[in-house]
Amino acid sequence: ANVSKEDFVSNDPDLWMYRDRTAALLRRYFRISIEVGRLPSLMGREVFRGKVTAYRMRTFEDAVIFVHDVEHALHELDDFEQGLIHRILFQEYTQDEAAQLLGCWRRTVGRRFPEALDRMSEIFLEGGLLRRFPDAAKEPSESCQEPEAVVDAISSSMCRG
């Protein structure tokens, strides 16, 4: 079920907009999984330096379901992407430190980590763990930009003067 980087090509150019929300969701997963007594599967039995805070879900069952769903989603990534999330988000290493620990170049981490977050965003969106932002194209009345005809008229009047 693991999809390698070479096999994954997204048709959604806007996944980058979800990176912060995805990272926050993964950090929440990490904290909650520890609270429910389950060390995240990517961690094994390693010592970690992440900070654990007291976050409570409505019910214990909600927390267990959330942990299970995110864990399942994480297993959709390839081993390297899982390692990046493990080191950078769960263990709070810098990208430079993660590169050294993973035995790769810093540039590789800098390129692949956002790709891993985008892949997780797509999985979360498909699975309903994240909700899509409203589509601005469907709601032009709420757009803060001028209609194209107005912009063209302004541009052409500025060029004449």
Can you walk through the features of this model?
The structure is a single chain. This protein is mainly alpha-helical. The protein is built from six helices and no strands. It has helices spanning 19-35, 60-74, 79-90, 95-102, 106-127, 148-160. The longest helix has 22 residues, at 106-127. It is globular, with a radius of gyration of 20 Å. The termini are far apart. The model is unreliable at 1-7, 45-56 and 149-161 (pLDDT under 50).
* Individual helix count: 6
Instruction: Report the structural category.
Output: mainly alpha
Termini separation comes to 62 Å
- List the helices and strands in order: HHHHHH
What's the layout of helices and strands?
Layout: H1 19-35, H2 60-74, H3 79-90, H4 95-102, H5 106-127, H6 148-160
Short structural description:
The chain is mainly alpha-helical. The protein contains 6 helices and no strands.
